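Hi F.,

I've been meaning to write this up properly since the lab meeting, where we talked about keeping a consistent format for the predictions we share between groups. The idea is simple: the sequence comes first, exactly as it goes in, then the structure tokens exactly as they come out, then a line or two of notes. No screenshots and no reformatting. I'm using this chain as the first example so we have something concrete to point to.
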Amino acid sequence: MIAHWTDYAHPEYLDFVGEARPEIVQVGFYGAHFWSLAHTPQYKGYPAHFPIRGLDECGNWFKDLNAKLHQKNVKVVGHFNVEFLVGDPDSKDGPRGFFKFYRELWDEKTLGQRPVKDPLDLLQRNADGSPIVHNSYAIGGMKEYWGCLNNPHWRAVLKAWAKVGIDRGVDGYVGNYYYRHNCLCEHCQAGFRKHLATNFSAAETEKQFAVKDVATHKFTEIVGWHNPKESTPLRREMLKFSQIACKQAIDEVFVQYGRSLKKDLILAQWNHIGNFNQINGDERCMLPKELWGRGEDYAWYSTGDAASSTDFAKGHYGEGTLQARYLRGAFDNKPFTLGKYENTRIRVAIAELAANGGAPMGFYTIFKDPLARKEITRYYQFLAKHDALYRASRPVGEVLLLFPRTRVHQGDVNAVAIFRDMGKSLLDQHVLFDILPDDLATPAVRERYAAVIDVTQLDAKLPRTISRFTALPTVRVSLDRTALDDALVLHFVNYARENGAPDRGKGIVDERSLAVKGVGVDLQLPRGKSIAKVEWLTPEQTEPVAVKSLITDGRLRFTTPAFLAYGVARLELR
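Output, unedited:
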């Protein structure tokens, strides 16, 4: 997939799409960004960089873009901001941004009747009843307000917007800005009281949360994300309520209503994981397992700065390997991507997702740089050519590392720090391991692995029989089994760079990958299986290369050829 918030009106954009041939193009705006800013003098700037001013004019431009993208045989997923509003209810020039749209530009022929007369009735509110207001971006000097997802009238606005986008030709939506702040409006008060009454008895509510009468209690805070050091059982229940409420809004607006208009509507939620931030980050950290990602077709998680800066002396390679393996396990191998703000290490950013079950390559796919465009196209066409290696393949690591989701739900974020350290150690030792949230690790799943490691096993010993690899620490190794032709696939991702390569860099010219001369493989084969042949593939070579190998005592041994950023060994099973 490719995704753009900017440059999508560039003359070369459509040509690039035709060259790279992604399956999903994540582009265009259909939620609050569009209706807040497309008609304003700030239409050209952050965040959406609209190509033309005017709600009708820009809407028709997106409709035309969608048609052109469909001609290139790609699906279009539009960005849908669900609550972050830019504008001023009043100013010397009257209402601005979202408020001008709602009061003066709402077209009932297109959008239907306004759900409420006053747009202030749609907003998240402080304890004193005033709207929650931020001034983080100051776009055009305007402030930021927040629609309340628990407000049924706001959900009606979102449904009207969703219908317009479907009419304009989108194949799906990726929703973002699922932030329930400390909203204390009547809908959130009633919703949280209902949440407590449904999930706890009166005695439990008083004992656990010091709330004597849920039906009449007026909460002075109903927080969302918060500092884990300041967390309490009640605050975590508030966060859980917040995230369940957001999921209920997603289901009502997009899963139920959106798919009633277009039954194959592709849906995703734009989330943030960073370096596994929990309680103070990750929009789904407190969701029950049965709600996590339910009804969604792919997952998008932003790593922010956590996976872009490097410090090779300390063993930090600016990677998202752990995040990728966690998402693959949590989402039951459905498609996902990492939104990495990476303009320099283009090859390795694509490689780490391809090697770990993800969909390369995330945000702001660079195409105006000829060298980046050439390499993105080369790598994407490599994935397309060898589709059987990737489509519906499953991870078959030998060790299972458990993500401590139950501990997070108890407020123990220290367990996550231990998990990160364990994961880094396994990666550095080149252990073939998968990741699964601990509440999904049934006895049947655990039996498939030679060892299961969780945060309570600080001195866990790895079995001596597991596979071993002779490789530099900068190499990551993973193992899949294909679905289409039943082969084993070893993926090798190399993060090494030449001495003097800048941490961030000016672009792919500064990626300066340092090739690996070869990796020694000593692989434990599945019981009762042998290997017919070993083929070596990289994006830089046009055809597979046969590799000599030796099988003794149920183990396959060979040395890979040299490779730059990404190498794949296809092992044909016998």
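Notes:
The chain has 15 helices and 23 strands.
Residues 274 and 304 are 6 Å apart (CA to CA).

If this format works for you, I'll send the rest the same way.

G.
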